Amino acid sequence: MSQSIEIDEKIFQDAVKFYGTIFNIPPLASKIYAYLLFDYRKVGITFDEFVEVLSASKSSVSTSISLLLNAQLITDHNKMDERKRYFFTNEEYKKIRFEKIVQKMQDELKLLDDLEGFKKFKDDDYDEKMEAYKTLLNKSIKNIQESLNKL
């Protein structure tokens, strides 16, 4: 079996490093995700192709695929006339990722408001900086949500 897609080795290595760091995933999972990025025609990549192309054991590939599926970074499909599973990047993940970012910013805003309500003393310099930070968080949330609506 040969690879069903064409990849650029440098871009592939850059993607492995970048997504491994961004998603905090192990190297093999990052390689699988990066490899799937080159599937522009969305034909899907089989388990066997990952094993062969990445020169990894079946159990390691299986573990990495499970991790990527659980993290919603990839999806899988079975074609009607085949038993094989085909893997794809999750097109919805960009939206999911930014929804999680917005939720974290909203959680931080609530925590900051709770801390401000609890604070027993007044410090104008601290309060001014905190208000600027909260304004930045609110603007960022609004911008991200507007962009998400376009996705």
Question: What share of the residues lie within helices?
Answer: 55-70%
Number of helices: 6
- For the biggest β-sheet, the strand order reads 1-3-2
Topology, number of strands: 3
Q: Tell me the radius of gyration.
A: 21 Å
CATH architecture of the largest domain: Orthogonal Bundle
> Shape, please?
elongated
> Order of SSEs, N→C?
HHEHHEEHH
- Describe the sheet with the most strands: 3 strands, antiparallel
**Any idea what the CATH superfamily of the largest domain is called?**
Winged helix-like DNA-binding domain superfamily/Winged helix DNA-binding domain
Task: Estimate the mean pLDDT confidence.
Answer: 92
Please report the first level of CATH classification, the CATH class of the largest domain: Mainly Alpha
Any idea how many domains?
Answer: 2
The computed structural class is mainly alpha
Q: Kindly, what is the distance between the CA atoms of the first and last residues, rounded to a whole number of angstroms?
A: 37 Å
List the uncertain runs.
Answer: none
Strand content: 5-15%
CATH topology of the largest domain: Arc Repressor Mutant, subunit A
